[in-house]
Give the backbone structure.
Amino acid sequence: MSTATATPGAAPPRGSMKQNRRWALIWSYVFLSIFAAFFLLPPIYMFITSLKTSAEVSAATTPWWVHNPTLDNYKALLTSREFMIFFRNSVVVSTCVVIITMLISILAAFSLARMKFWGSATLATGVFLTYLVPDTLLFIPLFKIFAWLHEVTDIQFINRWWMLIILYPTLTVPFCTWIMIGYFASIPKELDEAAIMDGASYMQVLTRIFIPVALPGIIAATIFAFTVSWAQFLYPLAFTTSTDQLLLPVGIVTTLIKGDVFNWGQIMTGALLGALPPLVIYAFLMDYYIAGLTAGATKG
Amino acid sequence: MADVQLRKLVKRYDEVEAVRGIDLDIADHEFVVLVGPSGCGKTTTLRMIAGLEEITDGDIRIAGEVVNDIPPKDRDIAMVFQNYALYPHMTVTENMSFGLRLKRFAQEVIAGRVSEAAQILDIRELLERKPRQLSGGQRQRVAMGRAIVRHAKVFLFDEPLSNLDAKLRVQMRTEIKKLHLRLRTTTVYVTHDQVEAMTLADRVVVMNNGRIEQAGAPTELYASPRTRFVAGFIGSPAMNFIPCVLEQAAGALRVAIPGGPSFDVPGDRTARYAASAGRKLLLGLRPEHVTEPGGAEHPSVQAFETVLEVTEPMGMETLVYFPMAGTQVCGRVDPGAGAMPNKRMTLVADMRHMHLIDEESGLVL
Ligand SMILES: Nc1ncnc2c1ncn2[C@@H]1O[C@H](COP(=O)(O)OP(=O)(O)OP(=O)(O)O)[C@@H](O)[C@H]1O
Ligand SMILES: [Mg+2]
């Protein structure tokens, strides 16, 4: 667009516009580099440490270089039965939580954004307020609730990894619902009215119009729900204790720290391996996410 | 196809009464245009017919059946929205066939109807495109195509042309008219543009403040408005309203304009106006009935002299403005009549087309 002007009179502003743009670019790169360095250093440090033997970690050499790289840490973890159990637990919990969260929050957001009923506005605000309550305040009451449920139903909830599938949505649903309300509210009212005139039921308006149109929002919410449930540390720490009931983040820390012996090499390896699935999911969904965003932007 | 009847239709929002009791019979195949100023309740009326808005009181009948409690999808009505409301993620074909696919029509039927509509609207090359790849006028056509394929009983249009530029608007206006001549579907069309209303409608319904002011054929509304509102709303430039006194003189009536000329009321109107003799009224005259003298005149075409204030050459005619009894009066003269600002000129008023308006009640006598 900046090269489109051709009249000689427009030359000076055009030059300054180009220069303007160049400076904007330079500053962008400066700050992005600082940002990238800041956020990439820890993972690099983790990666370097994961290639070291315990002896080299504790030796007084520079932490930023490996003298005798080894894959032992990786071998140890990938062949460890415990680590595999943690991994499986985490995958099952996160997948189920994402599915449950999206089901609940899409339906909730649709009804809150579109079906005006008594108290719908208050409810929508309430959903957001719930999200503002920190989870650190909630885990003790939740613990009490599950203890009570145990008494009533005789089902053991505490120290069972699958109970986190019930627990995590309390963290993810409010925020995801809130995101989805925003996306759904931005869809013009005439679109659902047109669909209703075309003979669609509410459910069809949701599945045939709202979900496809709000796909970027749904993907954003999915990523959020997955990240939260994958990385959640406090709840599994509080609610699960037996080794075979642990999720990845807690499992790494509790089994690789024995007393005051920190197995740094393996801790770093575990953390890196644990960070892999979210990375893969980001990479996979980001394409759709960005495609969806730009499609919306040029809709006009 | 079907007729539509509105009976004492009322819509009340919390504080506002948007529609205050409308009675209207729309015949089968008729093209009715609801027209009126912003906020007069046109859209609300249309949306109640569509079923998108619950009605507070009264009845709506489609093809004789009361539809008050029937949901929109079972009313068999197609609607074209002002902003088109095309489904952004579907192609033109998918947009048009959406309603038919929901109703599980056979593939061949759907394909046949879509290609028929595409042919009528001349959008055959656009069928695979997404809405964002279309211009405003093309989106407008697709929106109409979506209505056409349904073969619905009634078409509803809510200001479908107001997002288009002036030239395209005139073009699409003709297209809509052609479409209706071809399909003959009962149509209710909302606009605030009185030219659109006049050109498209079999019958124009002028609304004001939630009520119907007058309903009738375009020429009827133009020639015989019943209220001052309709007289002023229909026609462009608008009708002149000149304060006057109706005087009785030897069995005939005269319209005397304070500080200005007096005009004889045509003999055939004497009986109609006799009861109002002596009252202060408004003389209503359309600009085309204030013009330059044209030789041998009918006796009711009466001359007067004035000094022009402003002239606006339009090409095929020139609009002239001059003061009379404290208001500005507009006339239309031939471009060859030599009208110029500040020029003293003899004009004629064609009193055969006069209206007398009671200012208090707002009614045309
Ligand atoms: N959802 C609503 N809640 C409250 N008042 C409303 C609502 N919709 C419309 N109104 C009011 O009802 C009246 C009629 O509105 P309507 O939209 O029918 O006007 P309109 O004739 O279509 O005007 P326009 O030419 O501007 O579209 C207005 O005074 C408007 O403020
Ligand atoms: Mg409107």
